[in-house]
Amino acid sequence: MNLKRKACEIRKVIVEMIYRAQFGHVGGALSATEILVDLYYKQMNVAPEKVSDPDRDRFILSKGHAVEALYAVLADRNFIPREDLLTYSQFGSPYMCHPTNKIVGIEMNTGSLGHGLSVGVGMALAAKMDKKIFRVYVVLGDGEMAEGSVWEAITAGGHYKLDNLTAIVDRNRLQMSGSTEDVMTQDSQEIRWAAFGWNVISIDGNDLDAVDAAITLAKKTSGKPTVVIANTIKGKGVSFMENRAEWHHKVPNAEQFKIAMAELEAAL
Amino acid sequence: MKSNKQIINDVLLDAAAQDKNIVVLFSDSRGSASMNSFAEKFPAQVVEVGIAEQNLVSIAAGLASCGKKSFAVSPAAFLSARSMEQVKVDVAYSNTNVKLIGISGGISYGGIGATHHATNDIAAMASIHGLRVYFPSDNFLTEKLIRALLKDDLPAYVRVGRNPVENIYRGDENFQLDKAMTICDGSDVTIISCGELVQNAVAASEILRGKNISARVIDMYCLKPLDKEIIIKAARETKKIITVEEHSPFGGLGSMIAQVTAANYPTKVLNLSLPDAPVIPGEPDEVFKYYGLDAAGIADSAEKFLGGN
Ligand SMILES: [Mg+2]
């Protein structure tokens, strides 16, 4: 499978979903696309027929506002019917703007930042207790790193040497109000995590080969959990959204939508 | 005489021997919880998270989502407030099998001070959708409750105190989860209490009996789901209702009961509770006496309440 092409297709679904609903967090969904594509199409042991399999890998989107990327991937992998995406953000639809485990394939409800990694620590501990080989993946935002509870989880992950746990920080350097460095300094993520006993891999998070190599390396690492600092571009793939804080949750107008879809189509 | 938290330890010690999925999580709280013996006997079924109550609850939820029966044990003050959002999102909203055990609840810590008092936990925990709330009164009820909760896979918050408690029940009473217990019948007034103040309510009813006032006493250990039928029955059959709780006056037992009576059988309800202020420093018995929550104080309030209109 051509995963680069897949990432472009997923981006088109994301932008369409948000344009149709006139709501969504487009920037962070586009920055995390390669991470989700690599995990769901290549690295994770997950499948629609295995959603209750105790040995399945576990995925938590701690930055729950990037849910459009997750819905797009789950629909493409047939966890959920593709037509369900049409109800995204509509009255009464379970496809809300943050994930819930009412949706097939979603493990835990997220949206309030700073919870996912702790939940992942619990899952990874459960695997160790039961001598199971499943792995746990948690995707965090870089703005989310300001939540104190994340550091409780990082401390515990290092303490318990959870080598079956992989955190991936979508380091797009932006959050709602602007640059992460202006809002609350987040530089030196690598040093911070390493100090807590984590194996740190820093990559270009929009380079699928780099993401894949990092996850593969995480799987081979024993005795400590791994964090992948995925340096990404917020709004990746749509020229006028890239690296622009306002596209955290701005919604494209008709003209912008046409340009965005054309750019994504051209990249296929 | 044992504390209710010791009973939780004993029940879990017994149950864990047959069930490897029982996991107890501590936030540097195993000693405070009287659970050192559990930790020593089943180290593989214990997770220590350090002093990090938010992490405690989310990790418990992660374990539960993988089939574990998580018991997150931490002082009620911190568990119900510091980690309230983790309870809301990771336990209740995600619907994970986490039993939240709030130890040393209410004013158990006495003179240690208001930072360690849990006097808002009914209001906080009961307002979270999908979360059951229980305040057992004595050892018998604590054992029955924990054994019942071990059989289901839904979240619940349980508050127990720090200190040894007198037996209220003989031990042969019929226990049914979510059905309040009528400790003694009466026709003039009903005293409804929960948790460890139930023993003071019972003692108050004895004082009142000596004054020819017949007081029914109900142990509403199940705050959510609240046993509404028994409240409406009490409103119909006795003249007035008094509620007694180790909690702030807002959003606790008294508020809940008044809500039921107001809608179903309007009756005067007197709420005896802790004040809307940090409580006076002192041992629990001294503090209860000061606020009229000891047997004599409850009986006195009852007499005055019945004498009025
Ligand atoms: Mg960001």
Order of strands, widest sheet of chain B: 2-1-3-4-6-5-10
- Principal-axis shape of chain A equals globular
Name the poorly predicted regions of chain B: none
CATH topology of the largest domain in chain B: Rossmann fold
Task: Outline the biggest β-sheet of chain A.
Answer: 5 strands, parallel
Summarize the structure.
The complex is a heterodimer of chains A (268) and B (309). With 268 residues, chain A is an alpha/beta fold.
Care to describe what's here?
The complex is a heterodimer of chains A (268) and B (309). Chain A is of the alpha/beta class and 268 residues long. Chain A has a single domain (3-267), classed as Rossmann fold (3-Layer(aba) Sandwich). Helices cover 41% and strands 12% of the residues of chain A. Chain A has helices at 3-21, 26-31, 33-43, 67-76, 116-129, 148-159, 180-183, 189-195, 208-220, 254-267; strands at 58-61, 136-141, 165-171, 174-175, 178-179, 199-204, 226-231. Chain A has a five-stranded parallel β-sheet, sandwiched between helices. Chain A is globular, with a radius of gyration of 17 Å. The mean pLDDT of chain A is 98. Chain B is of the alpha/beta class and 309 residues long. Chain B folds into two domains: 2-165, Thiamin diphosphate (ThDP)-binding fold, Pyr/PP domains (Rossmann fold), CATH 3.40.50; 181-307, Rossmann fold, CATH 3.40.50. A seven-stranded mixed β-sheet of chain B has the order 2-1-3-4-6-5-10, sandwiched between helices. In chain B, helix 1 runs parallel beside helix 7 (139-150), helix 3 runs parallel beside helix 5 and helix 8 crosses helix 12 (295-307). The termini of chain B are far apart. The mean pLDDT of chain B is 97. At the A-B interface, helix 5 and helix 6 of A face helix 3 and helix 5 of B. The structure holds magnesium ion (MG). Magnesium ion (MG) binds at residues 28, 141-143, 172, 174-175 of chain A.
